[in-house]
Write a structure and sequence with these properties.
- Belongs to the transferase hexapeptide repeat family.
- One of its GO terms (molecular function) is transferase activity.
- Keywords: Transferase.
- This is Glucose-1-phosphate thymidylyltransferase.
- The protein folds into 2 domains: 231 residues, Spore Coat Polysaccharide Biosynthesis Protein SpsA, Chain A; 92 residues, Hexapeptide repeat proteins (UDP N-Acetylglucosamine Acyltransferase, domain 1, 3 Solenoid), CATH 2.160.10.
- A hairpin with a 2-residue loop joins strand 9 and strand 10.
- Helix content is 22%, strand content 34%.
- Strands 15, 16, 18, 19, 21, 22, 24, 26 and 28 form a 9-stranded parallel sheet that branches.
- By secondary structure, it is an alpha/beta fold.
């Protein structure tokens, strides 16, 4: 068996912060999303690949070298050109070979052990499922109906979900199923894997479910990104910074080197502050602020602010601010 992390998308739902940075490499606490995933993959000792695109290849190269994994690069530069998950799996088979595969979505943060997941794998397709507990939320995902641990129905983004159990983007597929991808792609949907799983069920192929609880995040929106930060940031990580004696840090936070916290500022809880930021007389909580940003007399809550912004005399709530923006109110 081989492991492959799918990171070939362009994350348009999180633009503008993902225009130049792949979603898998966004920070969650003191690590990136992909670091969190790789820590779990490394426990399996599987030969591991990361599937990405030509546009983000240079971003992933240093990461792949750090972890000792290989890149598979699809020759696309734009969203409309991408191969989609199933199309990318076809390319992986062509480059790496036909085998059993552990497949993991690169924007997927989950609580369970991949070792435990693979112990349940018996050579038949196995998918990880999670109960989101809300039919409205379930409509956004592939919805699973079970009898015991057997999948009896799978529907991608149904208008009326039959359950609140959803597929989470972790699959173990035997080589016999991987060999069917060419046949499926002749008429099938290239992107969402749920359509492929539905197709397998219609062919009478048995699929088993690995059910887990605690937490799961699909980092597809600002809300899910910030919620993941709150769940995974357990303790503070503060590098070499300058801080005023009149400022206060409420843990847990991540504050990267070179940042200056001036005046009467309050940072935290649940704040990520990137390198070389300047924060003066400002309050930041439940938020992510990328490198080189200047905040003066600002209040930031449940917001994401991209790099090298300037925000003055302003209160931001539930906002997403693109890089290099300059926003101020008054003097």
């Amino acid at each position: 068996m081989k492991a492959v992390i799918m990171a070939g998308g362009y994350a348009t739902r999180l633009w503008p912060i993902t225009k130049d940075v792949p979603k898998a490499l966004l920070p969650v606490g003191d690590k990136t999303i992909l670091d969190h995933i790789m820590e779990k993959v490394m426990e399996t000792d599987l030969e591991t690949y990361i599937s990405t695109n030509r546009f983000f290849e240079s971003r992933f190269r240093p990461f792949a070298e750090k972890w000792g994994v290989k890149l598979i690069v699809e020759d696309t530069l734009h969203e409309e050109e991408k191969l989609g998950t199933i199309g990318a799996l076809k390319k992986i088979i062509e480059e790496v070979g036909l085998d059993d595969y552990l497949i993991i979505a690169g924007d997927n943060l989950f609580s369970f052990s991949l070792q435990d997941f693979l112990q349940r794998y018996n050579g038949k397709p196995l998918i990880a499922v999670y109960d989101v507990g809300d039919p409205e939320l379930a409509k956004r995902y592939g919805v699973v109906l079970l009898e015991g641990d057997k999948v009896v129905d799978f529907e991608e983004k149904p208008a009326v979900p039959k359950s609140t159990l959803i597929s989470t983007g972790v699959y173990a597929l035997p080589k016999e199923v991987m060999a069917l991808i060419d046949e499926y792609l002749a008429n099938g949907h290239r992107d969402a894997p749920g359509y492929f799983l539905s197709w397998l069920l219609r062919r009478g192929i048995e699929i088993r479910a690995y059910r887990f609880s605690e937490f799961w995040y699909d980092i597809g929106s600002a809300d899910s990104y910030l919620e993941a930060l709150k769940t995974l940031l357990k303790e503070s990580h503060i590098e070499e910074i300058q801080i005023s004696p009149y400022s206060k840090i409420i843990p847990p936070v991540v504050i990267k080197r070179g940042t200056k916290i001036l005046g009467r500022s309050i940072i935290g809880p649940y704040a990520y502050i990137g390198e070389d930021c300047v924060i003066e007389n400002s309050d930041i909580s439940d938020s992510i602020v990328f490198k080189g940003t200047v905040l003066k007399n600002a209040t930031i809550w449940r917001s994401i602010i991209d790099e090298k912004c300037e925000i003055r005399n302003l209160e931001l709530k539930k906002s997403l601010v693109g890089g290099h923006a300059k926003i101020q109110r008054g003097d």
